[in-house]
Design goal:
24% of the residues lie in helices and 22% in strands. With 330 residues, it is α/β, with parallel strands linked by helices. It has a domain of 215 residues: Collagenase (Catalytic Domain), CATH 3.40.390. It has an eight-stranded mixed β-sheet. It has a five-stranded mixed β-sheet with strand order 1-2-3-10-9, with no helix packed on it. Strand 9 and strand 10 form a beta hairpin. Helix 5 packs across helix 6. The relative contact order is 0.17.
Length: 330
């Protein structure tokens, strides 16, 4: 090859790396194995979801790297694992993010656009226009479930002072039972979901960073429920990790500590949301339920919750059917 042809080849390689934002893939025999090259891979910043495919082909390990999609982000898990973040809101469009590491490639999937709700009045109107809870058979599963009992703790460090600690702990435990046992008003039997065990209070933080995000951190098996200042109208957010066999390994949850969530709805209620119903929705994600999408506003797993109502404390028919498909009933 002439000197000019070598120069043209080098320029083309540099151009490709500049367009993708990641180094161009090279044959395994040609990839540098020194520590400096490895450090360059690790020192890169967050990866937009749109650039993930190029990053995955770069030859760099992406484990521990941040993948972003809109305001949501997650850390790439080790090979053979997946991570997802999902939540529920007062209004707006609530979309999650899933990242899977097969060992050979890292893939990301954004939650579907479910349609936004602009106000409490619009949310109430959506409930009136949706099928009744015990007539709506809609559910979505996220492809993973618990095969062992779920053991969890509660971190009350950022709990608002206006909320009673004992009441909050009680409602978190009851909300877990709402999903796990399949409590409903549709005369459906109890589910056979694996048992759960509340292990007490903890100072350990959930691996969910609410500020600017939310974002999911490194996977763990601690299963922590905590509180924080969630952005953009979110009431709750849950991050969860599972293995290639579809078995859930851990789930961490953050509930918003703003003024809108209450453990008891006031008699003259305006723009207040039920704490227990919100946590019930988030436990739904932790057990493997996805959002129902728009048009199913009377189900617990609708992505927007209606204010001034406790309806989300009990599963609708679709919510119950989704849990039954994963865990069976008695």
């Amino acid at each position: 090859m002439t000197t000019s042809r070598r120069l043209l080849t080098l320029i083309a390689a540099v151009s490709v790396a500049g367009l993708t934002g990641f180094p161009a893939a090279a044959p395994a025999s040609a990839r540098p194995a020194d520590a400096t090259a490895s450090q360059k891979c690790l020192q890169r910043g967050p990866i937009p979801m749109s650039a993930l495919a190029a990053a995955s082909r770069s030859g760099c390990s992406l484990v521990g790297r941040t993948v972003t999609a809109g305001r949501v982000s997650v850390l790439v898990p080790p090979p053979g694992m997946s991570v997802a973040g999902e939540g529920v809101g007062r209004h707006g469009d609530v979309r999650g993010l899933t990242v899977s590491n097969t060992g050979g490639i890292v893939r990301a999937v954004r939650g579907p656009v479910s349609g936004s709700v602009s106000s409490a009045a619009a949310s109430a109107a959506a409930r009136r226009g949706s099928p009744a809870a015990c007539k709506d058979r809609t559910f979505n599963l996220e492809g993973h479930r618990w095969s062992v009992p779920l053991r969890y703790r509660i971190n009350l460090n950022h709990l608002p002072k206006r909320l009673n600690k004992s009441t909050v702990v009680h409602q978190v435990k009851v909300a877990n039972g709402n999903v796990r046992k399949g409590r409903n008003t549709c005369h459906k039997p109890r589910l056979k979901t694996p048992a759960s065990h509340y292990l007490g209070k903890t100072k350990t933080k959930p691996n969910v960073n609410p500020s600017g995000g939310p974002s999911c951190g490194k996977g763990n098996t601690s299963n922590i429920v905590g509180f924080g200042d969630l952005p953009g109208g979110l009431l709750g957010w849950t991050c969860y990790w599972w293995g290639g066999n579809g078995h859930l390994l851990g789930a961490d949850m953050v509930i918003d500590n703003g003024p809108d969530l209450v453990t008891k709805l006031p008699s003259k209620c305006f723009n207040k949301w039920d704490f227990e119903g919100t946590v019930t929705h988030e436990w739904g994600h932790a057990y493997g339920l996805g959002h129902t999408g728009s048009g199913h506003a009377n189900l617990t797993m609708q992505h927007i919750l209606t204010s001034c109502s406790t309806y989300a404390r009990t599963l609708g028919l679709g919510d119950w059917l989704g849990m039954k498909k994963m865990y069976g009933h008695r």
